[in-house]
Structures are given as C-alpha cells and as structure tokens.
Amino acid sequence: MTRRIAVWGGLGVLALAAVVGGALILSLPPAPAAAEAPPVPRAEAEAMLAALKPPKRARPVVAIIGINDATETTDYLMPYGVLKRADVAEVMLVATGPGPVTLYPALTVEPHATTAQFDARYPEGADYVIVPAMSRNDDPAALAWIRKQAADGAIIIGVCAGATVVAETGLLDGRRATTHWYFLKRLRKDHPDIRYVADRRIVVDGGVATTTGITASMPMALTLIEAIAGRERAGAVAREVGLARWDARHASAAFRFNRPFALTVIGNTLTFWNRETLGLELTPSMDEVSLALVADAWSRTYRSRAVSFAAGPVTTRNGVRVLPDRAGADWPAARRLPAIDDRPPAQALVAALQGVERRYGRRTADVVAMQLEYPGRGAIRPREVSPRSG
After folding, report:
1. How far apart are CA 339 and CA 199, in angstroms?
2. Can you tell me whether residue 323 is helix, strand or coil?
3. Main-chain phi, psi angles of 122, to 5 degrees
4. Residues 35-45: what's their mean pLDDT?
5. Residue 247 near residue 40 (C-beta atoms within 8 A)
6. Who contacts 351 (Cβ-Cβ below 8 Å, separation ≥6)?
7. For 302-361, where are the alpha helices, taking DSSP H only?
C-alpha cells in the first residue's frame, strides 16, 4: 500500500508540474511581429563617436578581458578579429590568470597576456577595455582590474551580457546602458539605478559603453574603428566582414522570451538521445571571427555542439592560438561541419544559420538567431548583411 501511495503521489507531482509548466508556456507571448529598427538621429550618432575617441594615444591600446574558466566565444574573439583587420590599434586578448581561456559554448584559446603582464607592459593602462560575457559576473580579479583601468582613464565597453560584469564594478550606476535581452530583467533588478535604453544596440555614457546581444560585437567594433580612424576606414573593414551598416539602431521589442522559443528549446532538450557532436576543423590562418560565429551558432541549437579538431594548436589569421578539443585530422563526414572558408564573417554566420535550418528546422535556427540577438532572421527583416564580399 505504501509503495502504491508513493507511486501515485509521484505521478501526481509530475502531472501538477506538467500543468503548471504548460500554463507558464501558454502565458508567454507569441513570436513578435516583423519590426523595423528606428533610425538614430545624426546628432546622437555624432555624440557617440565623439565619446568614443581615443582617450590617451593616437594609436590606442585595446584589451579584451576574459576569465580563464569560461568567457563567451564570440564576445571575446569577434571584437579582436574586427579591430585587428583595421590595424588602427594595438589589440590584445587578456586573461585574469595564466593558461588558456575556455570559451563557451565552444573553443579554447591562448590569451596574449595575463592582466599582470598587460599592466607591466602598459603601466599607464589601456585606452579601451572590452568586457565580454563571462560565466559569472562577480569574478574578483576581473572586477578589480576593470575598476583600475577605468580609474586610469580607459573607456570600458561591456558587450552583450558583459554589461552585467561592468554593472558589478559600479561603473554603470546612474548611467544609461543596454544588454542582451535575456539578461535585461536581471540587470535592472540587481542594479535599479541603471537607466535602460531601448532600440539601441550600442549605448555610451560617461566613459562606459554597453551593447545588446552577441552579434552587436561586430557593429560595436566598427563604431570604435570609426571613432579612432574615421568613417572611410570603418567602411572598408565593414565591406571586408560583410556588414552593410553598423550604426546603433536596434528593434528591441523583437527580442524577448516567447512561446515558440520556449517550446523549441524544451523539445530539443528532451530529445537528448538525438544530440550530436559536430566536428569543426581548425586550419592555419583561418578567420577567427568566422570561426567564433560558426562554432557559437552550432553550439546553441540544444541539439548539437561544435567540437574543434586538428593535429595540434592552430594560429588564426590575426594571431590567436586555438587549442583543439580533439587531436587528429579526421572526423566522420556525416557529422563534420563545413570548413571555414574565405567568405566574409557575416556571410559565414548566415551560412551557419542556413545549415542549422536544413539540419534541425526553421524554429531551431530562429532559436539560435534569438540567442545571438541577430537581426537578420525572425522578426527583423534581413537588411543587416551585405551579400557582397569586401
């Protein structure tokens, strides 16, 4: 009898959980309708560029800070790769401690310096510090270093959920800011003095800048290039990376937790027996921005993850040493991702999303695009990516 009661009790709990869960999903809004991002007034755009002018050096120093155990893949690599293409600044990948940086959801890289080594090389500090999303926003070493750089006059740029890290330093208190849509509620709850700005993927206030989701790293880097070296140089790099425009416009209402997103994530998660490990080959001089975008996209499907493979460490186009997840030069053809080729990085992302759609369906591709806060699918018309190479 006791066993029967326990069984029925367990079934009752499961049934109740299913009812509550179903009610919560039904309470979510549908996918947002198509929206056009409102334009940014010229005076506002000019003020943003003026605020991002190099504070110290004609050829500024840019440090991209990460924590060794988990820093977001594209947030860490994309600003570096885009800025290095421009050759208008000294750009370094920095980590709080020695050893490689494990990126999430994919890849492992060797930084160029620890924060201590950077400080020894540049005792006057950086001109810009770019802060990616990290697995935790309260790492003491990272927070202390960011505060010190700000005190020494660096402009601090929190990309994506890196805004939550910058917020923990106190540098966003009383300032205007934005962040990735998923972390917005948490940011406003934990830091009520922050003044959220909608419909802008880049917000600058008082020596601190923040951006919306992961794909905003590319227009942010181009905006920084424009502030440093002018629009002509930024336009040349934009053509190389395949971006038609890089202003701050954004349709914030298009990115929110909604019913199709939740149902697709739940459905893909529950089919755990059908999950795939997909091989992504590392090759010398490959573009680190394309690599980051492709690895990131294929690892956000809730059906697959991208695993890098190569005979040994590989150095990318702009000097990032990538450590393969698996040693070896071969991978089963059916589970091997297309090679990273010479197409512009923005087109590499489009191709990855198309590949996700072919393999897992439109809704899964939309889930990936939503996580990347990519405005080229779903509720945003595909105007951001130029079909022409640079």
Report:
1. 35
2. coil
3. -125, 75
4. 90
5. yes
6. 294, 338, 343
7. 345-360
DSSP 61: E
CB-count burial class (<10 Å; 0-12, 13-18, 19+) for 28: middle
Half-sphere exposure of 231 (CA within 13 A, CB side): 7
| CB-facing half-sphere around the CA of 297: CA atoms within 13 A | 30
Mean pLDDT on 7-19: 42
The closest of 243, 245, 321 to 282, measured between CA atoms, is: 321
- Cβ neighbours, 10 Å, residue 147: 16
Diameter of the chain measured on Cα atoms: 81
* Cα-based torsion angle of the residue sequence 197, 230, 80, 245 in order, rounded to the nearest 10 degrees: 60
Instruction: Say which amino acid occupies 20.
Output: V
Strand blocks (E) in 67-111: 71-72, 90-95, 101-104, 108-110
Residue 14, Cα to own-chain centre: how many angstroms? 36
Q: What is the dihedral of CA 72, 143, 84, 343, to 10 degrees?
A: 10
- Residues 184-234 have pLDDT tens digits of 999 999 999 999 999 999 999 999 999 999 999 999 999 999 999 999 999
Question: How wide is the angle at C-alpha 19 spanned by C-alphas 14 and 363, nearest 5°?
Answer: 105
For the stretch 262-285, pLDDT in tens is 999 999 999 889 899 999 999 999
Residue 154 near residue 52 (C-beta atoms within 8 A): no
The answer for residues whose C-beta is within 8 angstroms of residue 315's C-beta and 6 or more apart is 284, 285, 321, 322
Angle, nearest 10°, between helix axes 217-229 and 73-86? 30
pTM attached to this predicted model: 0.91
Residue 35, burial from CB neighbour count under 10 angstroms (0-12, 13-18, 19+): middle
**CA geometry: angle at 367 spanning 363 and 368, to 5°?**
120
pLDDT of residue 390: 27
| Cα separation, 306 vs 61, whole angstroms | 32
Q: How many Å apart are CA 68 and CA 198, to the nearest integer?
A: 32
Displacement of CA 124 from its chain's centroid (Å): 29
Residue 18 corresponds to which tokens in the numbers above?
């299913």
Strand pairing partners for 260?
none
Helix (H) or strand (E) holding 308: strand 304-310
